[in-house]
Each structure stands twice: as structure tokens, then as C-alpha cells.
Specification:
This protein has about 425 residues and is an alpha+beta fold. The protein has helices spanning about 20-30, 60-75, 140-145, 165-170, 170-175, 190-195, 210-225, 260-265, 270-280, 290-310, 310-320, 325-330, 345, 350-360, 410-415, and strands at about 95, 105, 110-115, 145-150, 155-160, 160-165, 200-205, 235-240, 240-245, 245-250, 285, 360-365, 370, 390, 395, 400. The protein has a four-stranded antiparallel β-sheet. Helix 8 (about 260-265) crosses helix 9 (about 270-280). The radius of gyration is 32 Å and the shape is extended.
């Protein structure tokens, strides 16, 4: 178990002071263990200063020494830097009915023979029973399985396994560029126009499967001359997962909350806003139904304020027409006072924006006053920048009396701007 054929070329690290498996092996057989990186307790695999290695490189940080050693090997003609890619064995076929047929036939004379291009695509037959019974359900469709060999016209049998869905998910997005093409997967000119994808948004669970396979498939199609891009997407955004009862929300765990139930109980707006408010899009969201109920109460409060001050709100909506809104909101919610960011950066911080809105209109028990935010002061983006108003007293800096609705921009207006 020590030398692994699946690790690199099957060789070992041979640095027992800095590799756990090498360390255990060296101690078991009494081999010398020599530290070459200063650091913590052995086996130490962290960063540190190179020592007892070579006078030319000793004393350097190990990461810098690594680069210098590679440069030395290249100068001496003894080696060069390289990037190694490793793709785990990929199960392409499965014994299921649902899936793309594998377009080959099995002939006793010719072996495995591809189905000719003019006979593609191979269409799945209609079957009555989809359940596998020790073999693929397709194997029971004898009329479909029995065929002739394209090479010698001898009796042959179709492949009854189907392709795994990972095959489809590795390239289907290219088909979107030319979905009605009946002669080829897609027109290369159309794919080259649209690809690479500007922004891929997906869950972290896809990082070690779907995303790797889609990159692999892209590079194969590039090498075949079907596309020009090297990567399927230029930018990756990994979204957080929804957690409930300490585990990822999934059907297999039985902890899925139906959005239909939430919409029926609290409304679509409250359900959507809770998803934005509870966590930034790149963080996991710990689902709490009480939170949806809280958002529902907040939106009801916004609605009541909108109705109460509709005349004033309508006037301010008219006055604010054409004002740059969401970047301004994002700028106001930053604590460091930095300028507004790009629209993409703002979109990636929707949780921050919804939190800012949540600090908006909250009705005081005093029906003659309106309190904005937990501290009693209106957030900057809800009021005139040149004035600071105390909502409890109705006073404005400068000693002027302010109308109770002065500077009020209701939640409905904010949502309209967002």
C-alpha cells in the first residue's frame, strides 16, 4: 500500500520528515529522517525556511527555493517545470433506460463497430418496463437490439448501456448556441461567437465532477478543431448551499422545504427576499422559517407606510427619476466610504443590499413619527444628504422644523430602484 500506482508515476515522495506516509514508512523500517524545512513537529508539511539541503538554496523560504531549484535544473538541462493534470476514471456507461444511447454495435466478426453518421442519432425504443433486472431495460427490446453490422452486414447487436448524464452535462451548453442543428452537434462559428461563458454560477459540489468533466470535454473539442476556446467559462462564482437541521438541504436527506408551501404561507416576495437577506450569495444559508415570517412582517410594514405616505412617495419617485440607484445604494452601505463598485461587484453583494433595505422604514409606536433604522436615524440613502434629522423630535440641523414625512423614501421606492 506504500507505493501507489495511481499517484503520479507510481513513485514515492521520499521526504520522510515532510510527508506523513513517508514518515510512517521510515520509522517502521528504521530509515534516516532528515529535516529540510524548518517548522513544527515532524512530519511537517507547512511552509518554512529551507535547511540542510544545499548551500545555494539554504536559508530561502521553501516556496521561493522551489522556483530557484527549478530554474537551476532548467539551466543545467536536467529538468523543467510542468503542470500535471489528473482525471479520475470516468464511468461513461450505465444500465439505465434514460440516457443517450451509445452509438456502437457488437459484431462477432468485426468486434465493436461505430454506427455510421447517416444513421445518427440512435433513437431509444419504447419499452413497457423501465426497471433494470440484472441487465439494462434496453436489452429486453429484442427488435431494437437486433441489427446488422455496418462493416460486413453480418448479424449484430446494439449496445444496450446508455451514457451517464455526466456526458450530457459536459457539453450541453454548447448545443444551446445551435439547438436546431440536425446535421452536427453545433456550428463552430456560432459556438466561437458565444464562448467562453462570461460567468458560471454553480454550487461547490460541482467543482470536483461536472466542472472538471466540462473542462476536459472542452479541451477535447478544441483539439478536434470544433471550438477555439480553451476553457468553457472565463469566471467562476461558487454559490453557497442551503443548510437545514445541520445538513445540506436535499431530497435524499428528506429535509427539503417546498417553496410552494412558503409562497402559499408568506408570499413570493417574502420568500425571495429572505434568500437575499439571510446570507451573501457565496455563503451557506441556514434555513429558518422564522426568518421568512420576519421578512413577511417587514414587507407588510413597508406596504402600510407606502399607502400612508403615497402622495409624498409619488412626488419623491418622480423627483428621483434617472438617478443612478443600485451602485449608489452599494456605496452607501460600505463602511469604508469607498466609491461604488462595478455592477458585477454590486450584484455579487445582494445580501448586503437587502440588509441595507431592511434597515429602512419601521413604524414607531408614536403614530405621528416615523423611525428609520434601529438607531432612530434615517439611513443616508433614505433622506436628503445635506440634513440630519432626529426622528423622535422632528428637528433638523439648523433649527428648522421638518415635516414628519420629510426625506422619507419608502421601501416600495427602494425596491423599484433595485
Amino acid at each position: 500500500d506504500y507505493v501507489l500506482g495511481t499517484y503520479g508515476t507510481g513513485a514515492i515522495m521520499a521526504v520522510p520528515a515532510h510527508d506523513e506516509r513517508d514518515y510512517e514508512f521510515a520509522r517502521a523500517f528504521g530509515l534516516e529522517i532528515r529535516r529540510v524545512i524548518d517548522g513544527g513537529e515532524l512530519p511537517y508539511s507547512g511552509e518554512g525556511t529551507l535547511t540542510a539541503s544545499s548551500p545555494e538554496f539554504d536559508g530561502m523560504p521553501n516556496l521561493e527555493a522551489k522556483r530557484r531549484i527549478i530554474d537551476w535544473l532548467e539551466r543545467e538541462g536536467r529538468g523543467k517545470a510542468a503542470v500535471n493534470f489528473r482525471l479520475r476514471d470516468w464511468l461513461v456507461s450505465r444500465q439505465r433506460y434514460w440516457g443517450c444511447p451509445i452509438p456502437v454495435v457488437h459484431c462477432e466478426r468485426c468486434g465493436i463497430v461505430p454506427v455510421p453518421a447517416d444513421e445518427l442519432p440512435v433513437i431509444l425504443p419504447d419499452v413497457e418496463d423501465y426497471a433494470p433486472k440484472g441487465r439494462s431495460p434496453l436489452a429486453a427490446a429484442e427488435d431494437w437490439v437486433a441489427t446488422t453490422c455496418p462493416a460486413c452486414d453480418s448479424p449484430a447487436r446494439r449496445e444496450t448501456d446508455t451514457m451517464d448524464t455526466f456526458v450530457d452535462s459536459s457539453w450541453y451548453f454548447y448545443r444551446y448556441t445551435d439547438a436546431k442543428n440536425g446535421a452536427e452537434p453545433f456550428d463552430s462559428a456560432k459556438a466561437n461567437y458565444w464562448f467562453p461563458i462570461d460567468q458560471y454560477i454553480g454550487g461547490v459540489e460541482h467543482a470536483i465532477l461536472h466542472l472538471i468533466y466540462s473542462r476536459f470535454w472542452t479541451k477535447v473539442m478544441r483539439d478536434l478543431g470544433m471550438i477555439q476556446n480553451d476553457e468553457p467559462a472565463a469566471r467562476l462564482f461558487t454559490q453557497g448551499m442551503v443548510i437545514k437541521d445541520g445538513a445540506k438541504m436535499s431530497k435524499s436527506k428528506g429535509n427539503v422545504v417546498s417553496p410552494d408551501l412558503m409562497i402559499e404561507r408568506y408570499g413570493a416576495d417574502a420568500t425571495r427576499m429572505y434568500a437575499l437577506f439571510a446570507a451573501p450569495p457565496d455563503r451557506d444559508l441556514d434555513w429558518q422559517e422564522d426568518g421568512v415570517a420576519g421578512i413577511s412582517r417587514f414587507l407588510s410594514r413597508v406596504y402600510r407606510l407606502t399607502i400612508k405616505y403615497s402622495e409624498s412617495a409619488s412626488q419623491r419617485v418622480s423627483e428621483s427619476a434617472g438617478r443612478p440607484c443600485y451602485p449608489t445604494l452599494a456605496q452607501r452601505t460600505r463602511k469604508d466610504g469607498a466609491p461604488a463598485r462595478s455592477s458585477r461587484e454590486c450584484r455579487d453583494e445582494r445580501g448586503t443590499a437587502s440588509n441595507a433595505v431592511m434597515s429602512g422604514p419601521r413604524a414607531r409606536k408614536d403614530k405621528n413619527a416615523v423611525r428609520m433604522g434601529a438607531s432612530g436615524a434615517r439611513p443616508a440613502f433614505l433622506t436628503d444628504d445635506s440634513k440630519t434629522q432626529n426622528s423622535a423630535s422632528g428637528e433638523v440641523s439648523g433649527g428648522q422644523e421638518a415635516p414628519r414625512t420629510a426625506g422619507l423614501e419608502t421601501g416600495a421606492t427602494i425596491f423599484r430602484r433595485l
